[in-house]
Amino acid sequence: MFPDGTGPSANPAGDRHERRIRSFQPRRSRVTAAQRDALLRLWPEWGVEIDGDRRLDLDELFDTLPPGSPVVLEIGFGMGEATVRMAADDPATGILAADVHTPGQGNLLGQAEREGLSNVRVANGDAIILLREMLAPGSLAGIRVFFPDPWPKKRHHKRRIVQPEFVELAASRLRPGGLLHCATDWEPYAEQMLQVLTDCPALENTQPDGGFAPRPDFRPLTRFERQGLDKGHVVRDLLFRRL
What we know:
Order of helices and strands: HEHEHEHEHEHEHEHE
Structural class: alpha/beta
Largest sheet: 8 strands, mixed
Helix content: 25-40%
Strand content: 15-25%
Number of strands: 8
Number of helices: 8
Distance between the termini: 43 Å
Shape: globular
């Protein structure tokens, strides 16, 4: 879709890493002219290919922020509307937003440019490879997993991203006090998330009662979330802190 080096590639990690069940399916659906223009212009500067071949220097990646600035990883950002709002509300924090949806990548880059934001970078590919191979232990101030695919059919539960192995890996990349923040509107998945996060010895629930958290002010409501709430969906937030 894009000449080499001018936009996100279809499979940045290739076959250099082990095969496993993935929690996502790449969606390279129709890209609008505006999204393509944003990708062509901004990807070389603000894009990151998750190839698993190098360790990221976050100070270098977020060179518009002071060295040592906090960086949060967002896994799965859809069209990027909430990401832009969070970045605008907290300009001192870098947001590394990972997804495989090409239109969403272009949309996020274009919105960030229009808002004059310099604290957003977009990563293309498998977030597990990003965490495991490209981010140093203790390097992140937070990890956000908002509304991941619930894979509702029982035979597909193994595809859910919030599993013990993922939580252990994610916790290892958080600095002490860093937050792992998950949100879902699928109640059975929320219960699974709560159990898996509670079972991780490196994390503690921010809620004294050990349950779900109120939606924090820094997580904005999206248009799709409002539609779900209007239909009676219950949204659960989980905030766990790295010990």
